[in-house]
Design goal:
Length: 118
């Protein structure tokens, strides 16, 4: 894993939180459609209005995603992406909505999302 630069300016204080989560695409860009299956991610840090993750797939600014974590789930908008390696992208996202744990976290496109077994 590549090192992360924490020297950049922030609007709010960040807390380093390392955990795994599932990411679903809610609103993709018209020129880059996305599948309904989840992507496993690793969180970097959180603030009161944003979060950072490491992802194996590239995300693009203005895409909206759903991030499901062990204790809550978030709706977020991608604001920046940086490629570290071929399968390692550092993604910065702005918070749209924070949700308590519920089955609604797994409803994507009006139906329950299926997790591929592999």
């Amino acid at each position: 894993m590549a090192p992360v630069n924490y020297c950049d300016q922030r609007q709010a204080q960040r807390r380093i939180v390392r955990t795994c989560g599932l990411l679903y695409f809610e609103k993709a860009l018209p020129s880059f459609p996305r599948a309904f299956h989840p992507v496993g991610i690793f969180t970097r840090d959180f603030s009161k209005n944003a979060c950072g993750i490491l992802s194996p797939v590239e995300l693009f600014p203005e895409e909206e995603v759903r991030l499901i974590l062990p204790t809550f789930w978030l709706q977020l908008r991608v604001v920046r992406a940086y490629r570290h390696q071929a399968k390692c992208f550092e993604i910065g996202m702005r918070l749209l909505h924070r949700n308590s744990p519920s089955r609604d976290a797994f409803v994507v496109g009006g139906r329950f999302a299926e997790v591929e077994k592999g």
